[in-house]
Sequence to fold (669 residues):
Amino acid sequence: MGKFEDLRQQMIDYQLEMRGLRDKTVLDAVKAVPREEFVPTELVEFAYSDTPLPIEASQTISQPYIVALMTAALELKPEDKVLEVGTGSGYAAAVLAEIANEVYTIERHRILADSARERLEKLGYKNVKVLHGDGTLGWPEHAPFDAIIVAAGGPDVPETLKEQLAVGGRMVIPVGSSLHTQKLVRIRRISETKFEEEDLGSVRFVPLVGAAGWEDETATKAAETIAKAEATLPELVYESSEHFSSIDEVNLDKLMERIGDSKLVLLGEASHGTAEFYDMRARITKELIEKKGFNVIAVEADWPDAAHIDNYIKGNEPDPLLSKEPFSRFPTWMWANHSVLEFTHWLKQHNQTITAANQKVGFYGLDLYSLFSSIDVVLEYLQKVDPKTAEIARTRYGCLMPWASEPALYGQVALTKQYRECEQDVVSTLQDILEKRIEYTRADGDKYFNVQQNARLVANAERYYRTMYYAEANSWNQRDQHMFETLEAILDYRESHSNNVDDVKAVIWEHNSHIGDARATQMSARGELNIGQLSREKYGEKAYLIGFGTDHGTVAAASEWGGPMEVKQVQPSHIDSYERVCHETPTDNFLLPLRQAYNPETKKRLLVERLERAIGVIYRPDTELQSHYFYASLPRQFDEYIWFDETNAVKPLTKESVKGLPDTFPFGL
Ligand code: SAM
Fold:
């Protein structure tokens, strides 16, 4: 199979079938259409991604799943005659033409109609006719149609289209009172006069513009109103924010007041490689520790790696039971960088001023990518305290050992049943450890807690790698659920050693995509949740969520997973983004309170969804819009937003830069 056939098959398996779309006729049709021929050349590598893509005339080729879902909802038969409104690239028309006898498709943009016609002809589709015109009027010469599919969202179901539907025919159309969000509706014509309507769920399509759709003028007016609002929104943001010149000089008193008696403060970042985000989070965390008694720092790093920092800042002796070479896994610069190093030194000094061990600030990792170093920690610990149980655990964990160098491969082979699943083995080991809590804790409670979390991580990581292969959203959720459960376990543990549970308070450092409430972003449409959402659901107003953003500068990131760190230029932000609004304010750095906004009008205007940029450990400036932007409603996502107009890449630690540091130093370089 060629590369695209492979990708197409994966798309069918993981985006369509796994979501429950099992209609063989539709799956075969999708399999027959080369989607890569319908997307702009520069986006070919994303042709089979689970997303719509931009095409000419500011329109889109729909997400593969939506095309398949709508096609299935049409219940097509080989002899059917179909009308499509909104040809776009012609992709959906090709899928329809694989099943039905005749396809008539109408597109209002001439350039799209012409290129779709040419493309479909070139690919040999002889049963498709493309018309340039207003599809809301239908195509009366060829009516009635057995099925009508509308690929753009209108305010109502156009009467003309209903009239052109044959008795017994089905129409699938997005309908909604706003220009961009709709519900998908299926209409069946039962008789000359009777129609039945069913709701198939929420969708987001480009507007249907035409005689029985949105007026061209309405769309232009709406665009103009938005444009007008945009002109003043940066001014409103300027008036509603606290400006500062540098991280050293920023006055955080008002922020501390807004945080009040929150138990959790979640600090985001808009990339995994920007020094200002790390330094500002360190600055805020120091104040939270000093002024409000925060004593837990939980970060998006693996448990066994963070345990080294915890050990170091608490001034403990080097612990032979800790993992080897911490922070040496890709992406090393995320934690082994100068900003984190400086903060680590500060934490160590701070902890020296605290005598009671249970009040020292602790540093913990919430992530689960350390499957094998966690296994090592568990086995070494058991070997010391309970060699018999260690032997059983070693045999059980042996199930995963063939995949030590590439755990993701385990998920693949387990899924295809080429290898047995190790779930029972890892869960049984965790159960053994939990059952022996009292016995093991007698020797050393902290060590037991560390090992129990490692065993928990192994169990959750095993499941994570297995689900990664068939359900992206599901594995994302498992990871964030693991992070939230780990946070809860840390809080419980610290609370059990504290006189007052309210004395235990945590700062969480993770990417914006984890800490901003998922319900306010496109993630929720994919069924994804995150630690920000889970924190709000459990702690309500006692969780304070702070997002970060930037316009341009440099960032440390790789070009592909596992690739070397590069210092890349961050592109100036997209015109429709929140970042652009912030960039246009006449100041460089600011804190923008959103939960308690200085001006309710600012919050109201910001609530309207815009694009937001997320750079991870990978940054692809060339395909930025596709790879890094998503829609969100900023004031619903965060309680506060911190802006740095220009930012710089983090500086990674090197062997040279850490020369002379003590043995207990927590970064394995
Ligand atoms: N089915 C397309 C594909 O596979 O590429 C995707 C279509 S895109 C989501 C919606 C298309 O509907 C746009 O190309 C837009 O120009 C078109 N459109 C909007 N209103 C229309 C109308 N009244 N008549 C015809 N086309 C319309």
Notes: The two ends are 42 Å apart (CA to CA). Residues 222-231 have pLDDT under 50 and may be disordered. The first strand starts at residue 53 and ends at 54. Residues 37 and 119 are 8 Å apart (CA to CA).
